[in-house]
């Protein structure tokens, strides 16, 4: 008796194995979704982490480590990792020599992937010791080539003692080729951004030339603000906003007359009113430059206060964009540690006291606390030399 046709009788599709085409379509869809993080990466670290994630999924590994290769120093440094618990991996981000890892070096030089099994008595001892240390049974070592030279090693690890597929190295190569083109995009973007930044800095230094007391102010605030943004672990987009915003925060002072900007004595009420317009003037000036959009809110809000008593909008606490809170505390710190016509620069210890005293009223307490840490970690001598420019 023949099997009844269930689809015709009840509209039920019998269970069946997916066809080759269906499998290919599904794996293509997964691949495309795995490429997303690399495509959107804002810096090389994000990109290498995205590559590690994509490779881990593509070759069904438990962990993947991507390490940058420095050809000049002949050293590698962990650059990105992806781990699927319960597997673990120690991500050290320190440079180390490949002399102890001959298999990895061979892959870097020849481009031919190598698979290592911990149980293989012929395998290199250092490599198998590393596998034992983290409870892995196998590793597949590949390389990422960029601009015609080895750029990174890509190592996939499996806990289960199951061999990688013969076409896994080719799949990793495809992902690495994609990562290389994403790297090119990042490099071009960085180049373009570098040109824009230089142009902006030239404009800002022309503005600073009006007032000898603020010479190089924007450069110092850029350095401090970006260091603070990194210390606060802001994402790369936010860090870029802080860099642009810190350079341009006072650009609106171009609209403040010299008689006010350069006045030696204190300002009267009317003069203060004009002076306090500079964040709004600055934001308006930059509004037509779409490229600078991330800097707009920082320029507008860099004189807001944590307690809501700042200007121009009286925003408080987290309503103030984080970039503006960062620039605000760095701006004040730079003012404290610089000579002014009406007072001398404060010592670092005194400036730290002021930051702490005003944390929670004028400043975001987290930003103020971290700024003390960042400045302290720069080393006293360097800080005195770089930041306290006008102290006697
Ligand atoms: Fe300002």
Structural class label: alpha+beta
Would you identify the regions where 5 or more consecutive residues have pLDDT less than 50? 6-12, 383-392
The CATH C-level class name of the largest domain:
Mainly Alpha
What's the CATH architecture of the largest domain? Orthogonal Bundle
Number of helices: 16
User: What's the order of the H and E elements?
Assistant: HHHEEEHEHEEHHHHHHHHHHH
Distance from first to last alpha carbon: 105 Å
The profile of the biggest β sheet is:
6 strands, antiparallel
Which strand order spans the largest sheet, edge to edge or round the barrel? 3-2-1-6-5-4
CATH topology type of the largest domain: Hypothetical protein af1432
What small molecules does this complex bind? fe (ii) ion
- Measured on Cα atoms, how large is the radius of gyration? 28 Å
- Counted up, domains total 2
Judging from the principal axes of the Cα atoms, what is the shape?
elongated
Our estimate of the beta-strand percent is 5-15%
Number of strands: 6
**What's the CATH H-level homologous superfamily of the largest domain?**
Hypothetical protein af1432
Report the helical percentage. 40-55%
* Mean pLDDT over all positions: 85
